[in-house]
Design a protein that fits this description.
Radius of gyration of chain A: 34 Å
Oligomer: heterodimer
Number of domains of chain B: 2
CATH architecture of the largest domain in chain B: 3-Layer(aba) Sandwich
Strand order of the largest sheet of chain B: 2-5-8-1-9
Shape of chain B: globular
Structural class of chain B: alpha/beta
Distance between the termini of chain B: 30 Å
Largest sheet of chain A: 6 strands, antiparallel
CATH superfamily of the largest domain in chain B: P-loop containing nucleotide triphosphate hydrolases
Strand order of the largest sheet of chain A: 8-11-6-1-14-13
Strand content of chain B: 5-15%
Number of helices of chain A: 23
Number of strands of chain B: 11
Radius of gyration of chain B: 21 Å
Helix content of chain A: 40-55%
Shape of chain A: elongated
Largest interface: A-B, 28 and 27 residues
Strand content of chain A: 5-15%
Distance between the termini of chain A: 33 Å
Helix content of chain B: 40-55%
Order of helices and strands of chain B: HHHEHEHEEEHEEEHEHHHEHHEHH
Amino acid sequence: MNSPVWRTRSPSKVLILLILFSLLATAIAGLTAALRGPDLAALWFSLLIGLLLAWGLAYIRQPAFRAILFLFLVGCLYLLLLPGGLASKLVPLISGAIRWLLGLIPYYHGGKTDASQLASLLLDFDNTAAILVQRSQAWMKALAAGNPAFDPLAANLVWNAVVWIVACWAGWMLETFGNAFLAVLPALLLSLGTLSSGQRMVPGLYLLLGLTLLLLGVEKQERRQRDWNADGSAYPAHKGRQIINSALLISVMLVLLSAGLSSLSAERIRHWIDELRKPVPQQKSNLAQSLGIVPAGTIPPDPFKAVRSPGLPRDHLIGSGPELSGRVVMTVKVAALPDLSQGGQPLPLYWRGFTYDIYTGQGWSSSETSSSPVAVNAAMEADHAMDHLLIQEDFSPVEDLGGTIYASGEPVRVNIPSEIAWRSPGDLFGLQSETASAYEVFSLIPIVDAEELRRAGETYPDWVVKRFLSLPPDVPERVKSLALRLTASAITPYDRAVAIENYLRTYPYTLDVPFPPPQRDVTDYFLFDLKKGYCDYFATAMVVLARASGIPARLAIGYASGTYNLNSKRFIVTEADAHSWAEVYFPEIGWVPVEATPSRPVLDRSQPFLTEPTPVGILPSQPSGQVQKNGIPWLSFPEVLVGLLALLGIVWLGVDGYRLRKLSGLAAAVEVYRRLRQHAYRLGIQTEPGATPYEFSQALRTGLGALNARGLQVFIKSDLLEDVQKLIGEIVFASFRAPSSSVAGLASQWQRLRWQLWLVWILKIVKGRRISGYSQSGESVG
Amino acid sequence: MTTNQAGKPDDLNSVQVFADKVIDNVEKVIVGKRQVIERLLIALLCEGHVLLEDAPGTGKTMLARALAISTGLEFKRVQCTPDLLPNDITGVSVFNQKTREFEFRSGPVLSNILLADEINRATPRTQSALLEAMGEGQVTVDGVTYRLPKPFLVMATQNPIEFEGTFPLPEAQLDRFLLRLSLGYPAPKDEDNMLRMQQLAHPIESLSEAIEGNRIVSLQSKVREVHVAASVRRYILNLVNATRTNPALGLGASPRGSLALFRTAQARAAVDGRNFALPDDVKSIAVACLAHRMVVNPENAMGGETTETIVQELLKQVEVPISVDQL
């Protein structure tokens, strides 16, 4: 290696980094346009950190494998702390720890933390980390099993990791190889990839093109200038600036040209990519789904506008007075219910009319449905696999309900002729009948408790992923990040849903709300401006937040169970019980209602549904952190400690390598020789005290060979040892001043050798008994 | 930049070439004694002299002759006996009847390579005359000083077995020899080889000059340029100091011993093709360089200890000082 250890800093290096950063930032901005989930600012921050770190490592000439290891570990830590949201738990932990330490000082009277508080903070941090890792693991497992699930937290982590890798690559490549094109290649590929899935990139593409050209030009100039410097050639200082200016001019011209010329237009490129990607396998789109890439144009126009007016389903309730409330709409008698008279409270059954899957931002609609007549008592398809309770509901409408057939759970049989509308088999939209008479419905209610729901997993069928996880692209970022924040500390979809539910139940309930402003996202308006509302708002927000955190959910409208009349054993359903609520899908279980409206009682799922009803009114609200105690903390404190130690070790290795390089030749050689002798001592390779370095390295080699012969499969390259020995000899004995190249050579050779020596040592300990007879093989050969 | 090119500038490289050529040539006659030949050359390159201690018939004379022929140097031999006079070595002024003047008849000392056979049989007076010539590089006969030719190498032999009628060299005289070497008996294979080679004619008859002798002086000055790092110098001093403090030794090595170690290490590095000396150079030559300069205490000598074994033991004990603060 002829290159000097330190290069001279030139101002254009900063310029190049700036251009590189803006180029990558543009690419990432294009990426976020096609993504849901990751926050642009967070990605930019990841980019900045990764780029600077990798560039810095390359700048101080770290060996590649160590830089990769370091960047990997720091990347993991960074991903866990910032995008993973662990930092918010770490800060109180650290401050708690500091205050606890301060409390140990006898005469300190400031704020103290006692040990139990500290322990709970630690536990909290540990739990959060464990959950984070567990969710990522589950996501990766699902991905590996070919059954990708969209988990926004995991997608966020993955995209941040991708950005991190791209940034590290760019920084490293730019400084190590001085090749700008190689550095930006992954970023360009990434933007080509996003270009192929989303179409909102065209202006960004021009910027990207221009920046790439500019970067290539400036980088080339910088390299040439460096060469001139190295040659010692004289050149006019203003020449560099001129060249950079012309590079800028040329790139702007080229970009303008490409924008103007149709043959070179970005649309053409996009079109070409579209052509290329036509035969996309299903697996790939699943993958894209799981990474949160929004496929372009999956939201078709609603052909059923006549049936379902857009907007919130119960707009008519806004501003309505209490006079509506008392009117009885229907009465329902439920057979197969256990005796409810003991509790005296109605079970949280819901009489569902319709379900919606498409959130428009202003309201709800359904995907295209197909309808078919259903004969009397004909069995209907229902999506279920686990134990369900078959119940018989006897509906007696009092008001005209427009022929809608209500049912709790999944209807399987109706005793009047009806028409069923579904989006796909098993995905029921609603049931209609011509007659407005009384009817009987058999339906299935899942018998599950919270534990089963937690165990349900995230293996969703395709139709669920397709319809019940999608959100319109213009859902504001703060809604999504709120969803992430609420669900960051929950592992299972059930716990996430409960976390959102509990959060929403803190908003006050009122019917007295204004109409949402036009063009305003209803959820955003409700969550951040209105901060109160009625069931539509709560249910809508529940579904949107659930979907944003990767839980398939739909909006259901119908009636709440009403008042249970003990004498007639019937539910009396009034206009006031008209309700909309969210339903969450669990694999193999089906749709389970979630009650986000605070005026309605909390659904108790602590015991299997329906087997032993508990009075609802006196139930304590569910603590949100309940799962965390039951969940297995995958990432325990010792492991975190080990990880931190490993990180410290890596940092130390980096510092050590840097120090070795910066030492004077003699000092470096003396240090390396000392360490070699230490290693030999550790390995039990004995040399005489009077052994010369050459004899010592001979003995070391023989000793290692003997270890090898005794069953330790050690493969230390003997020429590596020889090189190190030769370099030491050269530096210590040869000349008055060792050239920096041989010092750098010694440092890097030593770094390569060191791992192998440590490995031999560990192997020797592991297989210690087998070679215990060994003692004298390291005798000097002088 | 590779070290091979930097470490061996042409001049030093020629030392190695020279050594290789000469050793190869001498080996045609003296089979299997490469190390001794190399050390002999080292002494030649260091402008030193050699004491060969060997049983009779091991090829001491042949070694000296072969070296002389290979290097093209003038070779003289003097058999030391008790009746040998100093003038028999230095030369003598003879009155020329024709010119009516004294003219100098040079003795065997005025040559390049002088083999003084069984030096311990000469009287101390003769011995000291020879040793003075070795030390001073000149002889004075009848008030006229004659400079000895350069290079000048004395190979004195001693028979370690017979001591009857000998005058053992005093320590002060022994100190003047740079190295004490011993050829020893050849290995059976080498001896067999020798027998075959000498069946028809002695190989020395056909030995030819391998290198011009006049180049040796310039090579000698090249050897002095070999770099000796501070840690190697310190190693030499530590070794020498260890001989002085060793309880088994009545007399340790003199400063001349340190200097000899220094020079021979340089020469060995040069012969090895290096422009820097290693501790290994010092180590390999230390016994030959130091052992004859020391005296073992009688009680230790009774226990079988010799100066050789003591030096060897010291070499195992004295550490090579490798540290940043060297001296």
